[in-house]
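Entry: Protease I
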Amino acid sequence: MTTASIKGKRVAFLATDGVEEIEYTEPRKAVETAGGRAELISLKDGEIQAVNHMDKAGTYRVEKTVRDADPEQYDALVLPGGVANPDFLRADADAVRFVRDFVAAGKPVAAICHGPWTLVEAGVVDGRTLTSWPSLRTDLVNAGATWVDEQVFVDDTLITSRNPDDLPAFCETLVDRLAAA
């Protein structure tokens, strides 16, 4: 486990209903443990419903809506997976703009499992190398990316992982990259 400090860094977690709970809670815990400030950004006010695979899990309070969030206020972005969560996000113009603005600004963007679907919709994967849940391979390749089957892969500012089993490496890489930024 990393001992890097990210004190004073703000990290946006973009998620909505259907987010895979552990893919939200573990990276958030890693950011907060390293001294960073995490904020849940979503499509709506109130709470979002997380899942454990397809079963309902906990609910989480939204700290800001994506339409009111400014990427300039954050140092990094995390895109947790879950099957439904990124599908809802990629259908929302404000969410897609938010992701695109982070990548354009050269800030770290970490996506796990199905999270890269939102990167595809934002049009930011062409010429990049990423990993993801295996079923996204065709979508990523069709969008111009090279897909690899690795625990965690870093391509410049994009950090990607395949699934919840990769969370320790994903979280450590996220914190280390943010500490170095």
